[in-house]
Amino acid sequence: MEPIKDLIKRLADRYGRERSSLLPILQGVVEQEKYLSEYSMTEIARELNLPAADVFGTATFYSFLENEKMGRYIIRLCKTITCSMKGENQILLTIQDLLKIKVGETTPDGNFSLLQTNCLGFCHKAPAMLINKEVYNELTPEKVREILTSYINSNGGGKENVNNTSS
Amino acid sequence: MSTTHLLKRADFIFKSDNDWKDVLKKSLSRKANELINELISSELKGRGGAGFPTGLKWKITSEIDSDEKYVICNADEGEPGTFKDREILSRVPFKVLTAIAVCGHVTKAKKGFIYLRGEYFFLKEGLEKAILEFETFCKTIGFDFSISIFMGSGAYICGEETALFESMEGKRGEPRNKPPFPSSCGYLNKPTVINNVETLAHTYTIFKYGAKRFYDLGVQFSRGTKLFSVSGDTPKPGIYELELGMSLADFVEEFGDDDTKAVQVGGASGFLVPRKRFAETTIGFQGRLVGISLPTGGSMMLFNSSRSMFNVLDNYLNFFAEESCGQCTPCRVGCQQLLRGIKAVKRGEKNAGYLDKLLKLAETMTYTAKCGLGQSVANSFSSIVENFREEMIY
């Protein structure tokens, strides 16, 4: 994994050092690190010559820019109305049961974090969830077990395209 | 004049985009004024939900003198129950790219952006490929225009156009005061045309077939077709292109499950219509000529009699309380208090009369909140509480 300082410099070279480059750079750091540490944020501030408070202010506004250490796979289960009507709670219980974590927690091996999120735009195929950037929809407890098991089994391989039905 | 008619299906938006090169070349050969007049006479209104006349939007920006202008496609599709823009971008991306470029031609902008919500990251790769092919073609015909994707990071409020600019500028997605409007002062304070994905796709139809073909569809004040995202208690959830001006009764006849108790029109920020009002409600922008007319970004969520309207409202208010940007007090505190208030009434800690106080609070938010988010919370709150008061209490 690239050292954070190098990563930030590379991202700044690519996107520029304007204020309008901030979000892509924050996203680039989160992509590798899965979250923004205080160190990352102050380094970004230094690289872009911005007040650290401004970087912190922007970074903490967006729900996909995490400020706490997250697992390798971040599960975001949609809890908005249609998913909630179509059995989101059963899916949540299944995930919690399988991974032995609650919402907001990360598995001790650092592989999975479980979060809830607002409307993913798959209301016609509810319930839906994201694992990192992959969408899984029309979930049932059986299906979500299968998906998570395949992630667990591919542990280390980083295989993310499991049974993806993204459209 | 009747503004209602039976449900009419249409098929423009998802018709193949493989003629985009012809549409682009033909449009670029026409004068800006001609294209603007075509849009104005089509009476196309913004399909994101607000319904501002698209031709007028392009015209205002085209008339402003500036060295730098931008065209932005708003693909921050976050309204609960809306999923049409994703489908447009994945199935007919060249229609949207062509429309962005034609808008650039009309307004003399050289740079276009697609602000894509973080949740739709999986669309990015395909879109980038399409953009590359598109830009290469633009070069071969000597048209200087580039398009970039800007990714969002999970914030509903960034669908509000000025919050979207703030976000692109690397700031918190907090809406600006209006005026000034984006047409003269948008991204980086430069004149900016910002259109919803679907709006742009409709301009493609208009440039291809001419304004009349579009104008002839729909009803007075609500011309053309619209994509509807249908979800909830329906045997056929999905995306449907329908002519505007249909009655909600016809819609429920087609999409309901014979037990439809209410329909949420326009997502969480829209209105809940109870069964007794289906017949008098039409889906369109304006036209209080007959009954009620509801504008919408296309979200249609159906609820049958098994659903508790308290749970529905509770879900919406949680959504708003989380997605409020927190900048202005009416919205930040208002959303939280409405949520706490309905829970207190449900638990019996407050009497039923407290609901009237909450209705007043919601109304106050409509007048005092800074942007559309806070102003529209009362839409669903009041329409649910007023129509299903007993479900809030017992």
Quick summary of this structure?
Chain A has 167 residues and is of the alpha+beta class. Helices cover 44% and strands 11% of the residues of chain A.
Roughly how many Å is the radius of gyration of chain A?
17 Å
Domain count of chain B: the total is 3
Could you name the CATH topology of the largest domain in chain A? Glutaredoxin
- Note poorly predicted spans of chain A: 157-167
Give the % helix of chain B.
40-55%
Large-scale geometry of chain A: elongated
* Main interface by residue count: A-B, 39 and 53 residues
Q: Report the structural category of chain A.
A: alpha+beta
User: For this structure, what is the CATH class of the largest domain in chain B?
Assistant: Alpha Beta
Please, what is the average pLDDT of chain A?
93
Strand residue content of chain B: 15-25%
Question: Widest sheet of chain B: strand order?
Answer: 8-7-13-9-10
Secondary structure class of chain B reads alpha/beta
Termini gap of chain B: 43 Å
Q: What overall form of chain B do the CA principal axes indicate?
A: globular
CATH topology (level 3) name of the largest domain in chain B:
Rossmann fold
- CATH superfamily name of the largest domain in chain B? NADH-ubiquinone oxidoreductase 51kDa subunit
Q: CATH H level of the largest domain in chain A: which superfamily? A: Glutaredoxin
Distance between the termini of chain A: 32 Å
- How many domains of chain A? The number is 2
CATH class of the largest domain in chain A: Alpha Beta
